[in-house]
Amino acid sequence: MARYTGPVCRLCRREGEKLFLKGSRCLTPKCAIERRSYPPGQHGRESQFRRGRPSDYLLQLREKQKMRRIYGVFERQFSNYFKKAEQRAGLTGTNLLILLESRMDNVVYRLGFAESRAQARQLILHGHVMLNGRKTNIPSAMVAAGDSLSVRPESSKNAYFKTLRKEIDERRVPGWLQLDSSQMSASVSQLPTREDIDVSLNEQLVVEYYSR
C-alpha cells in the first residue's frame, strides 16, 4: 500500500477527532475539525445524522486505522509491529504502542525537533539527525534505552534549526527522554510506559481487531 499523499486533514475528519498531523495548525481555528467536524466525502454531512449503533468490527477497524494514521505507518508495517508485540511478554496492546513510540521519527517529534511526525520523517530522510553519532536516514529505525540522538553539526547552521534552538525549550518533552537544548541533542533514558504515551487510543480494540 502506497503512502497517503492527500490532504491529511481529511484523515482527522474521518476519525472524528484531531490526530495532530499538521503540528501547530491543529491548534488554530484553521484546523479542519474546527471548521467541518463531519466526515469527508459527498455524504459526510449526512452520516452524522444516521441512526444505529456501530458494529464491534467497525469500532475495532476505526481504532486500528486511527493508530496507524497517528504514527504514519503502512498497513504491512503495522501488522508486523503487532506480530512483534504479540511475541513480547506483557500486554500486547501496550507492547504495540511502545514499539510505535520507539520509532526514530516519533522520538524526533517527541523531542520537539519537529512539529509533526511527518516533518520528523522528512528531517531524518534528509539526513539532519544522527543516531548514536551516526547519520541515519531511516525513520523507522528503532531506538533503545541508552541511545542518543542529535542534530548534525552541519545541519545546525540551517535557518530552521537556528530558529528551533530559540523555541525548543518551550516544547514539552516526555520523561523517558532527556533533552540538551543547548547542544540540540538528547538521550533515551528508558523506553516509555503506557502512562508516558499521551495518545487517545484504545489499544485493546486493535488487539481485538487482529484476534478475529
Give an overview in words:
The longest helix is centred in the first third of the chain and has 16 residues, at 56-71. Helix 4 (56-71) crosses helix 10. The chain has a 5-stranded antiparallel sheet with strand order 2-1-3-5-4, covered by helices on one side. The chain has helices at residues 8-15, 32-35, 44-47, 56-71, 75-87, 92-101, 104-110, 117-125, 159-167, 203-210, and strands spanning 129-131, 134-135, 148-151, 177-180, 185-188. It is built from 10 helices and 5 strands. The chain folds into 3 domains: 1-52, Ribosomal protein S4/S9, N-terminal domain (Ribosomal Protein S4 Delta 41, Chain A, domain 1); 55-101 and 199-212, Orthogonal Bundle (Ribosomal Protein S4 Delta 41, Chain A, domain 1), CATH 1.10.1050.10; 103-188, Roll (Structural Genomics Hypothetical 15.5 Kd Protein In mrcA-pckA Intergenic Region, Chain A), CATH 3.10.290.10. The mean pLDDT is 85. The radius of gyration is 18 Å and the shape is globular. It has 212 residues and is α+β, with helices and mostly antiparallel strands.
